[in-house]
Write a structure and sequence with these properties.
45% of the residues lie in helices and 12% in strands. By secondary structure, the protein is of the alpha/beta class. Bound molecules: pyridoxal-5'-phosphate.
């Protein structure tokens, strides 16, 4: 259904005629009349005179104005609806939905798309993953770990072993919740209990399932500000009202105010090596968060995707899920995308049994079960210690890449043009540009030199992020840091000069 209330002009016959540049008298009367009306409206839609979202007048009004029967207008509207050009909503009226297709299809495909699906217009994630796979681009945009550290030999050995000993299990159907052996291995290595684990095709699938499981349109969701863009997109598409909790302050009092004011359905947070800021919440804040969630009876969805990527010797505080010992309020999401590789598409949720069951019922509709072969191979890698050995190697390489990028940016970008803290985990530098420099301008300029960074705006639930950049320092070898920093330095000073030139002169009178 159209998001905005119908335009006044669209509701009246006069408004329609004005848009089409006709009047009632000039509408041809040749028969069959409804075909004439279809042609008139189709032409107006094709030329953009009446645009998507325009509300057509009620059938009765149009019939009276044209001095035709109501059945004629009903037939015309029905024909336009079959062609995908308009859509009727009970009790609301008939709206233009799409222009005619230029292809040879007998209807406009766009007009056939469900109203709920039409809400999905943000292509940031799709653009990101496409750019990450483009060999002509140096992408510092998508969150990709050091893939050259991937334990390829161990993976190949494990796969051969699985195929020769458990081929049957690999190729049969498996349980929607995930293979029992992997669920047990995940619970053993990452905490929780096997029956509380639901294996997923990546953490993003978990966010989608949770949104479908917990959110009704109009429900409020409290989310980190800034926060993970994939979660923002998914919850927004589910119809949630998103409310930002400033993760840089991480003030429990502020959270309590939001809980009282918005009565949210859930809190989503990524409290460990946060994407994009790198922040890790202290144990004290974690306990306060849990206390608030219990007091106000609001579930927490904890995204724990970066937990294993600490860059110092000190591990982060326990997860909210671990601290919530009886697992009564926290649902935890994890993924192998950052620990191993995003191309694996393997993640999991830990939650109470009732939620795991409901999520599995939803999951079976789109993904009867996650691919068995990768589940079995990952089991081997967890059980034989490969994963832990790999994580040690990966973290050492990430440290090198972080230090390389920090050094290169400090060397090449003029002082004051880019501020950032040095994170002690995760994969990103969250960078602040001067207030007059727009992130989009920097991004465009860097892209012209085949380097991609991400602007801050998709990480905010409101209109912010215009002066922030997120740089993924783990995705490129340290040897590329200097070139990336040089390109960014040119892009930032170019955007700064452009902004200065465009700034209105203030006249002193
Ligand atoms: C916080 C967070 N959650 C979830 C995801 C999605 O991970 P996956 O590749 O497992 O779907 C990402 C990916 O960047 C992320 O940063």
């Amino acid at each position: 259904m159209p998001k905005t209330s119908p335009r006044k002009t669209g509701q009246s016959v006069i408004g329609l005629f004005r848009a089409l540049g006709v009047d009632a008298k000039s509408v041809p009367r040749t028969r069959p009349l409804y075909r004439r009306l279809v042609a008139l409206l189709e032409g107006g839609i094709a030329r953009g005179e009446v645009h998507a979202g325009f509300q057509l007048p009620p059938e009765r009004d149009l019939a009276a104005a044209l001095e035709v029967s109501r059945a004629t207008v009903v037939s015309a509207y029905r024909e336009l609806e079959a062609r995908g050009l308009v859509r009727g909503y009970v009790g609301r009226g008939t709206f233009v939905s799409a222009k005619p297709d230029t292809s040879s299809a007998p209807f406009a495909w766009r007009g056939k798309i469900a109203a709920s699906a039409l809400q999905a217009t943000d292509s940031t994630v799709r653009d990101l993953v496409r750019a990450a796979a483009d060999p002509n681009l140096m992408s510092l945009a998508a969150g990709v770990p050091a893939l050259d550290c991937f334990p390829t030999d161990a993976f190949r050995r494990a796969m051969n072993y699985v195929l020769s000993t458990q081929g049957d299990a690999a190729w049969r159907h498996g349980p929607t919740e995930g293979m029992q052996r992997l669920r047990a291995a995940l619970a053993h290595r990452f905490g929780g209990e096997a029956e509380h684990v639901l294996v997923l095709a990546g953490a993003q699938q978990g966010l989608d399932l949770l949104a479908r499981c917990l959110i009704d349109p109009g429900d409020a969701v409290i989310i980190d500000r800034p926060g993970y863009l994939g979660a923002i997109q998914t919850f927004r598409n589910a119809g949630a009202r998103l409310v930002g909790w400033d993760i840089t302050r991480a003030d429990p009092d502020e959270l309590e105010e939001l809980l009282l004011r918005y009565r949210p359905k859930l809190i989503y947070t990524n409290p460990t090596h946060h994407n994009p800021t790198g922040i890790t919440l202290s144990i004290r804040t974690r306990r306060e968060l849990l206390e608030l969630a219990a007091r106000y009876r609001v579930p927490i969805v904890e995204d724990d995707t970066y937990r294993e990527l600490a860059l110092t010797g000190t591990p982060p505080p326990p997860s909210l899920f671990q601290l919530d010992e009886a697992h009564t309020v926290v649902i935890r999401i994890n993924s192998f995308s950052k620990m191993l590789a995003p191309g694996l598409r393997l993640g999991w949720i830990s939650a109470v049994r009732a939620i795991v069951d409901q999520l599995a019922l939803l999951k079976q509709q789109v993904d009867p079960h996650t691919q068995n072969l990768s589940q079995l191979v990952i089991c081997e890698l967890i059980e034989d210690g490969t994963l832990d050995a790999h994580l040690a190697t990966l973290k050492a390489e990430h440290r090198r890449r972080r230090d390389g990028m920090v050094h290169a940016l400090r060397e090449h970008v003029a002082a004051g043009l880019l501020r950032f803290g040095v994170p002690d985990g995760g994969m990103y530098l969250w960078c602040q540009l001067p207030p007059h420099v727009h992130a989009r301008a920097v991004q465009d300029r860097a892209l012209r030199e085949s380097v991609m960074v991400l602007t801050g705006d998709p990480f905010f639930v409101d209109q912010a992020g215009d002066h922030q950049l997120r740089i993924c320092y783990t995705s490129q070898p340290a040897a590329n840091a200097a070139r990336a920093a040089q390109v960014l330095a040119r892009a930032i000073s170019g955007a700064a000069a452009e902004a200065r030139a465009e700034r209105p002169l203030v006249r002193v009178v």
